[in-house]
Write a structure and sequence with these properties.
This protein has 368 residues and is an alpha/beta fold. The protein has one domain (7-336): TIM Barrel (Alpha-Beta Barrel). The protein contains 11 helices and 16 strands. It has helices at residues 40-49, 79-94, 153-170, 184-189, 204-207, 209-222, 245-259, 285-290, 303-311, 322-326, 330-336; strands at 12-14, 17-19, 23-25, 55-62, 98-104, 122-123, 132-133, 139-140, 146-147, 174-179, 227-231, 263-267, 272-274, 277-279, 294-298, 317-320. Strand 1 and strand 2 form a beta hairpin. Pfam families: Oxidored_FMN (PF00724).
Length: 368
């Protein structure tokens, strides 16, 4: 099959960026940034997965000291962190890649150990996340958060703005604001968590106010044509869900349209397997139809489903997580319909700088 006949490998223009294909590296926490700093092994990881005019989104990167909640996660609030990211960005750009940085704040998804001076994690609420049983059977526990005062929220917005400025200084092509998966911004957005009675709580407009202030702050720093947003209206991660996810998603999309946001990356509801084969729910079409910019889907896609989604107009781009992790040359493998390396879930978050990180093999083209 020729590459031009493969929908995932057709060119696409995303604002100012002329992409050569539609296979996106999804933002994936990898837990290898010791002391919150990306090192040479991080530069190698992303450069391995970079392709000429292909879009990569870096892992969730903290905007401040209070944003942290996971081991060895990167940050971008200090000059030292900016300098460390420069070598990573340069490595991707040398391969011709387009590189965005996902910026986040975990909010209440943290513990005293990760917070400055052992203080309580901050959130829109003082409700604690229930202990979470992970896929490996271990239990993850979180500390009781402290409800942010209304007069403290502008500082968090400023933290995101500084992070956006630092991303530009590090050389990133843009930022993706993490408004998904039960972290701070989504904690404000969803009514299972947000129990505020001030201008940041109650109705949907108030609950989305913080998210839109953060998005506007990033726009002020770098322009709307360099800002993407990730949403997961249907997810219930970290005890964070909404009673009307469709209305919430459409409200945010309408607001983002008015702001001229470059792209919206949205996560499918939980995928299921039937006879060993992943079944994509395809529940995002109404969001895709309403969004004026580039639409990116993620969640359980393989080559076949990705091609189908693009060819049928369900999405513009498809983000791949586990498969891109295990196959640094994923677009080439899709082009040749070559076998994929299997991913090893047990090494997703190990701190090793090589194992489960940069040691996945490239395709041996001589054998194809």
């Amino acid at each position: 099959m020729e590459a031009k006949a493969i929908p995932l490998l057709t060119p696409y223009t995303m604002g100012r960026f002329d992409l050569s294909h539609r296979v996106v590296h999804a933002p994936l926490t990898r837990s290898r940034c010791y002391n919150n700093l990306p090192g040479e092994h991080v530069a190698l990881y992303y450069s391995q997965r970079a392709s000429k005019a292909g879009l990569l989104i870096a892992e969730a990167t903290g905007v401040s000291q209070t944003a942290q909640g996971y081991p060895n996660a990167p940050g971008i609030w200090t000059k030292e962190q900016v300098e460390a990211w420069k070598q990573v960005v340069d490595a991707v750009h040398r391969k011709g890649g387009v590189f965005f940085c996902q910026i986040w704040h975990v909010g209440r998804a943290s513990t005293y150990d990760y917070q400055p001076n052992g203080q309580a994690p901050v959130s829109c609420t003082d409700k604690q996340i229930m202990p979470q049983v992970l896929k490996d059977g271990t239990v993850e526990e979180f500390s009781t958060p402290r409800r942010l005062r209304e007069d403290e929220i502008p500082q968090i917005v400023s933290d995101f703005q500084l992070a956006a400025r630092n991303c530009m200084e590090a050389g990133f092509d843009g930022v993706e604001i993490h408004c998904a998966f039960g972290y701070l911004i989504e904690q404000f957005m969803k009514d299972s968590v947000n129990d505020r009675t001030d201008k940041y709580g109650g109705n949907m407009e108030n609950r989305c106010r913080f998210a839109l202030e953060v998005i506007q702050a990033a726009i002020n720093e770098m322009g709307a044509d360099r800002v993407g947003v990730r949403l997961s209206p249907y997810s219930n991660c970290l005890d964070c869900w909404d009673s009307d996810p469709d209305a919430l998603g459409l409200y945010m999309i309408d607001a983002m349209n008015k702001l001229g946001i470059l792209y919206c990356s949205m996560v499918e509801p939980e995928v299921i397997k039937v006879d060993g084969k992943v079944q994509i729910p395809y529940k995002l079409l109404h969001f895709r139809k309403d969004f004026a910019g580039t639409f990116i889907v993620a969640g359980g896609y393989n080559r076949e489903e990705g091609n189908k989604a693009v060819s049928e107009g369900y999405t513009d781009l498809v983000a791949y997580g586990k498969w891109f992790l295990a196959n640094p040359d994923l677009p080439k493998r899709f082009e040749l319909n070559a076998p994929l390396n299997k991913y090893d879930r047990s090494t997703f978050y190990t701190p090793d700088p090589v194992v489960g990180y940069t040691d996945y093999p490239f395709l041996d083209l001589s054998s194809v």
